[in-house]
Amino acid sequence: MTQRLVSVWQPFFLGAGSRQAAVDAAVELEELGYSRIWFSAGFDERIPARFRELLDGTRSIGVATGIASIWHTEPAEVAALTEDAEKAHPGRFLLGLGTSHAVLVDGDGARYRKPYSKMVEYLDALDAAGLAPERRVLAALGPRMLELSRNRSAGAHPYFTTAEHTAEARAAIGPDRLLAPEVAVVVEPDPGRARAIARQYTAGYLTLPNYTNNLRRLGWTDADLAGAGSDRLIDAVIPWGTAEQVAAGLEEHYRAGADEVAVQVLNGGDNTAFPADAFRALAGYLQPRPSL
Length: 292
Fold this sequence. Notes:
This protein is of the alpha/beta class.
């Protein structure tokens, strides 16, 4: 990558009450210079139409699934959707794939077996359907999945992790693959309020072994992971403060090797409201410039 990318990761785009509200927000992000919009594809059998609606309603900003679960979607349908988006909007749609979590797949983990092997099978099926590796990235955290993202996709989209992990991911995937971590932030200068907002977000993620195991690999302790996280963990995973301070926290990921940071602004769990003011303020410090 020759130019860093500043992107947006926001559940609002799936949860927005209307197509027009989602498109209006996407248009503003495009005008502010953000490169790409990431959001979850949910857990239905089909990737939501919202991804295509945003592509159709904007001119140049990229749109990516962050992520599409390989347990809930069929490779042939996903490949066809991706190819259709590529024909209509060349270079603007990126398929992010992930193994999700046992509790979200079947509740008790009975079906959630060998997620790495499942991903290999899914990628084999995408290859058979003719989907080029450069049209997809993997939600990779651990060494094996990072290696797979290097060998069989355009790169990696880690989620809920630290700048230290970004450095390890860059070393694992090499210099020529896209590294686009999601980074949640709180634009709030008061420490108590900022960490309280952050903990509304971390409480759920710290119950999921995929994330906690990754953090333990990085040296975080059970005490750090207890409840909704220690102050030290919150401060490492979620930059908070003024827009300038948050931007400085995001810079740590670029210095660690990220090509693209997908910024998720936390606003107390309200996915029906788009935090436009925060993205406007951050744009002033991050100076996003689209370069997909």
